[in-house]
Amino acid sequence: MFGARQTELPPIREALAAYVARAAEKLRAQNSLCSTIQVGLQTQLADRNGPRYADAITLALPSPTDDTREILALAQRGLGQIYRPGYPFSKCSILLMNLSQRGELTPDLFAPKPRHGTQQLMAVIDQINRREGRDTVRIGRVPAEPVWAMRREMLSQRYTTRWEEVIGVRG
To answer: What angle do the packed helices 68-82 and 9-29 form, to 10 degrees?
Structure first.
């Protein structure tokens, strides 16, 4: 979900890039590959007065991958096919489908070969982000302070998972 409705394509592309990066990172963490993605886009469907629109497109990757760049390139093409100007969009989504474990599938003889060094590059990026903090290294399309980010002013305290948010009693 976006923090505010988006009518222009560039911020929606940024959001999709951030979501793809996070999904691909989780894919690599479980040592999986995906063969198909689904990109979705929708307005606030509960709003009876405003214009409503929702669409999704399912696209097949040339070969199973966990490379953020390949998944993102296909996702951006899919977004371009379902985007309609003028609608106030409230949500975009990425769904990774047809998952398999690395080494589980026999490679397609006619599929294009993966980029050399992809697996090592993605491993280094994930390692840096684990050590230095989430999004230390990120896709260039994703800004550090996105305008589409969810609003956090009403975020509940996380007493059970964050030491700095534990309630203290003064005596």
So the answer is: 140
